[in-house]
Q: What sequence folds into this?
């Protein structure tokens, strides 16, 4: 065989594979954007009392993809600024008791900053009162203490808001304080005892004086903890249980619809 033939029949030398390309900065940025898109929005819950928790609100938040994070109000300095939603729950103290409960100062400041930025915020009972003060309104002792289910009457604006779902359905009350209507806020509901039961600012802020979040297991816990206050105001535990049995389920259904509509609008 000639040298030419040998050269033609010889196998070609193996070619080493090229090294994998280093990801381009744009690709890294795209991956980060996808990761951020998959992250669940945070619902930060400011807890002013151990027995005050989301109750029936939790399932509504979870059904809309929120990750729920509780933060004791005493740790308000650790509250993140970027929570998608903040929910401020109730407590035994009054907004004006800042000497006994100094964390209230920081809580009001946090809410004032958040509301000024028009970030979604929901207040329940004490939470509503804290929002009112953060917006410049006064919070004082009320003329009567309400414990039990009461009729809440939506205003015309309330009937065109998420509070339309609670019309005609008694809501659970447990409060003795009241608040003035903040400048620029819209009154959404009143009751026989109090003219300000709920207000809103745009679509981002909602405050309710009553307790629509109460779930079945919470009643006994609250009654045990508040037995002395109930006795002071002549509230019979058996009567409150009867009210719960009569109105509790309808309140939870209405509360879920109310919260769901508000969340869908923020």
A:
């Amino acid at each position: 065989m000639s040298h030419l033939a040998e050269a033609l029949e010889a196998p070609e030398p193996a070619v080493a594979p090229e090294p994998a390309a280093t990801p381009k900065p744009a690709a890294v940025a795209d991956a980060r954007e996808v990761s951020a898109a998959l992250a669940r929005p945070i619902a930060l819950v400011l807890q002013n009392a151990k027995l005050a928790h989301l109750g029936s609100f939790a399932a509504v938040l979870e059904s809309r993809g929120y990750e729920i994070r509780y933060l004791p109000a005493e740790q308000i300095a650790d509250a993140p600024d970027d929570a998608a939603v903040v929910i401020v729950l109730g407590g035994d103290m009054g907004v004006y008791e800042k000497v006994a409960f100094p964390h209230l100062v920081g809580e009001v400041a946090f809410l004032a900053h958040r509301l000024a930025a028009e970030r979604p915020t929901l207040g329940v009972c004490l939470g509503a009162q804290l929002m009112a003060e953060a917006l410049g309104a006064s919070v004082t002792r009320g003329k009567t203490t309400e414990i039990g289910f009461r009729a809440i009457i939506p205003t015309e604006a309330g009937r065109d808001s998420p509070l339309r779902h609670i019309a005609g359905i008694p809501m659970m009350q447990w409060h003795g304080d009241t608040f003035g209507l903040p400048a620029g806020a819209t009154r959404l509901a009143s009751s026989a005892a109090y003219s300000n039961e709920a207000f809103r600012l745009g679509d981002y802020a909602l405050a309710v004086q009553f307790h629509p979040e109460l779930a079945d297991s919470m009643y006994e816990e609250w009654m045990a903890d508040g037995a002395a206050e109930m006795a002071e105001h002549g509230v019979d535990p058996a009567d409150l249980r009867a009210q719960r049995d009569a109105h509790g389920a309808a309140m939870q259904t209405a509360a879920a619809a109310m919260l769901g509509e508000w969340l869908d609008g923020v």
